[in-house]
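quick one, three chains, predict together pls
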Amino acid sequence: MVETGHFALVLAFALSLVQMTVPLFGARLGNQRLMAVGGPVTVAGFVLTALSFAALASAYASSDFSVASVWENSHSLQPLIYKLTGTWGNHEGSMLLWVLILTFFGALVAAFGSNLPATLRANVLAVQGAIGAAFFLFILLTSNPFVRLNPAPIEGRDLNPVLQDLGLAVHPPLLYLGYVGFSICFSFSVAALIEGRIDASWARWVRPWTLLAWMFLTGGIAMGSYWAYYELGWGGFWFWDPVENASFMPWLAGTALLHSAIVMEKRSALKIWTLLLAILTFSLSLLGTFLVRSGVLTSVHAFASDPTRGVFILGILTLFIGGSLALFALRASRLTAGGLFHPISREGALVLNNLFLTTATATVLVGTLYPLALEALTGDKISVGAPFFDLTFGPLMLPLLVLVPFGPLLAWKRGDVFAVAQRLMAAFAIALTAMLVTGLFIDGASVFAALGIGLAVWLVAGALTDLAVKSGVGSVAPAIMFRRFAGLPRSVFGTALAHLGLGLTLLGIVATLSFGTEKILSMRAGDTVELSGHRLRFVGLYPAQGPNYSEDRGRFELIGASGSPVGEISSAKRFFPVRQTMTTESGIKTLGFSQLYISLGDAGKDGSVVVRLWWKPLVTLIWGGGLVMMAGAAMSLMDRRLRVGAPSRRRKQALASAGLP
Amino acid sequence: MLFWVIAALLTLGASLAVLLPLATGRRLALSSRDHDLAVYRDQLAELDRDGARGLIKPAEATEARAEIARRILRLDSADQAGDASPGRAPAVARLVATAAVLIVPLVSWGLYSQLGSPDLPSQPLSERLAKNPADSSVDELVARAEAHLAANPSVGRGWDVLAPVYLRMQRFSDAAGAYRNAIRLDGDSAVRQAGLGEAIAGAAGGIVSADAQDAFEAALKLDPANAKASFYLAVALAQEGRGKEAAAAWQAMLARLPPDSPWRSAVGQALAKAASPEVAAGGTNGPDAAAVDAASAMSPADRQAMIGTMVAGLDGKLRQNPRDPEGWMRLVRSYVVLGKTDQARDALGRAISVFGTGSEEARKFTAFAASLGLTATE
Amino acid sequence: MTRKQKRLSVIVGGLAFLGAATGLTFYALGQKASYFYMPADLTTASVAPGQRIRLGGLVEKGTVQRGQRATVAFSVTDTHKSVKVTYTGILPDLFREEQGVITEGTFGPDGVFVADSVLAKHDERYMPKEVADGLKEKGVWQESKSE
């Protein structure tokens, strides 16, 4: 079974070689038969990769320690679910997951792309094949998950307690679905450059893929952030860590791409820019893979001392980013530029959005790569953390967020900013009220808090205004209004939801940062502490025994207004004897959208325990907003007009209603 | 055999995926022009639907319709080339097709023969453990016991059985863990504490560290007659260079031990060795017999000097031929035993740098040094 | 405005925007990036009180004192020099004497380093990468450059 998986992987590599060349020749020679090879080969490559992945997963599930990667990254005592998720919880397996998703998306294009122009389809599949071939080769030569051990050891080496967590098990696949989803946009762009023309269906294909990739990436980032929040025990949700930035950069660029693709589809403008953005977004995804997978982040020197993997990925990176940008430089002038538009218009707003987002991406890129470059060049070690990003990323985001509600309300081609401002008056009034209430009654000292809350409310109210205006609130009878509301295209809901989610996330961030309170104190059993109006009693420290750890569990009671306990929170210090490690399990109690967060410290000799408590108001909105954004993307994806379904199949209906010959 | 059949079938399938479209070559898709036209018509239809629902104003709709019409006109004037006929297959295309069909089996079988291990069957753990116990290796039997313990980790008895087995298999850190678990679950006993001490000392390459001493002392407190504990505490004395006290302790043991005790021979050997300085130099891989003979004839000061010279010799040898992990450990231990902590630390640093800081050996060195009570940096 | 002028103004506006962003980025890099020091580096480098730095080294043996209300004082050393550090909060699970740590914060006027975060992130050698590199440079880990 294991060797079948290995053979399937090699065979998939061979097929990817065919996939990257034959359809390309076919398109070049105008030969239908050669072009037709692309589809079946892509699907077969996916089936073989899936077979290979299944073989590896079953090796993990059955603890087959004759497979080196299973021996290194698994343990027979793990619960089955963590054995399975362990398949991609390591370098080799996660790279296999990467190509599995890549071939899966390729197969989707092959299966549903029969209505694409033949040459475009052939070229897209060829580019996908080239990416696949590079990564297959990388896996087979430097990170082969099927390396065998003979004789097989009897027990695996690893049982990292921190990695045994469902959040961390789901996080990488989501992130990869996002990263790799952008590869389709990349392939379409490169295919358009090879052909020297952008087909009308180009944007119709690129936009849903961007949406899909963006949706998964949003989920992956939110999941990673929440995991860090509850697992690391520091109560922080974003650290501007290079690994986080590696996933955040493609997200920012992808957000820009999402918006420029709208202009491209609706107005046939910004074509070349969108194409470049698609290339850049996938390049940043590759860069993210490189940063995380090459080991360059743990140490520049580690990369230099164990060069094969790093140099190989760096090679792939150079080949694809350099190659596609060179092709862009050569061919972009052959593409016909799009239509013109007035600066004050929906298009103009989206261009502004792109300007801010790409610049913001660039600052994150600089902040992430500068320490690496500096250390490689001078040996100085610096850390670029939150203070840097607060000063650069923050000022770029603020004006963008202020402008967000205007965008969807502006008309295409030529907009009227005053009319839009009038429609937004109500939203503005609500935001202003929120700002004043915050400033006057809650926290007069912090201008940041008042402005932040005002801005967040502005975004939420703006998104709702968009829906209200489009369904005609105030101008038509309620019955018509409801009918209109129900009849709104799903993409309108999608836009509103995504912007609403953004506002909610911002609200969570601002509220947590400015109204959150924190206490560090040493407590004995029976002590009570009050934090932002919540009274907590420390019941005591209780030793307990887990399956593979022992723990000291600190139990706390939440005391209600009447003085009787209304809830319990417990936080624990766990000790894993096999690996001789300690972990802290934070105790979290969700009250409404807010959370009480308790982290246990060292026990003193006199029976007291150091306890760190946080009150995190509205903190769940940070990730809840992410979910709402995902829902917005899903809504837009469901919009019939964005479906990649065949226009030819609906041609009759289209002809009938358009009255065209 | 089955594997080769599957591999052949997979190859056949993959080759067919290439071959079939080349052979049939049906016309698959619209030409770019027709396709674009369809998309534009679709857009027009969508525009009408939006207009009917009142989602866009009539003026905007008119403008948009004009825009789409312009695009359709542009399309008509655009290139008429690119329409390919399905049958055309010039020589180049035939060449590409042939290469494509050949490349799949060639690359896959060629690469797999380099990378794969076709003769190695899958070995799921449950299958290996389900084998007849008589056919199992000791490793597998232990694994079975471990699996049982994992399911019932609070059975102190199981740890008690497993711990000495680990000791005999030289899995010292596992043994230490097992003894600790047994002590935690079934309570203290002299035998367990002494075993724990032996495991800790074993993990440290035979050096009785402070932790091990604690365990042995605990054992003696529970049972003053525990031979293992007394023996190793004397070894500790010898390792600290207090050879006379060690010898005295062993002598006292001999006097107390029952005549049939298995420890008698061990103590006898230890006493014999104590007369020679080998213990002080550490390990049996120390200086050769002639040197030891010479050493035993010297005064203590001279002997110390000679040991110093031999250690320096080992040091020099390692400078020339540094890739010798055993040698490094011996050197570090020698320096520790001689009380030259700084040099020991220096040797450790060099040893680690030889094998690279992240290497398996470096980790072993660090652990080994830590067991001697030595940290890489103070 | 003619079309050409319009395009020009858009380009100029865009460039000005990018220029401002670039300037801000480099200003922020100069001001907000915190440098990493080992205790011995501090004798040569001048670090003003209030300037944010990261200080790494080993927790000196026997210096950890737990004071009132969860404040901990300890010394960070690179075996040549050591620096007194105070920290209020919960120490990481892996904080131990003679283990590598990285602290981040500022120097108070009295020369005591007031840390607001303490990291004891471990790689396979139980040593933060910066600390290991620093110790290597100081010759504590590595005597000869025989590699």
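The longest helix of chain B spans residues 91-115.
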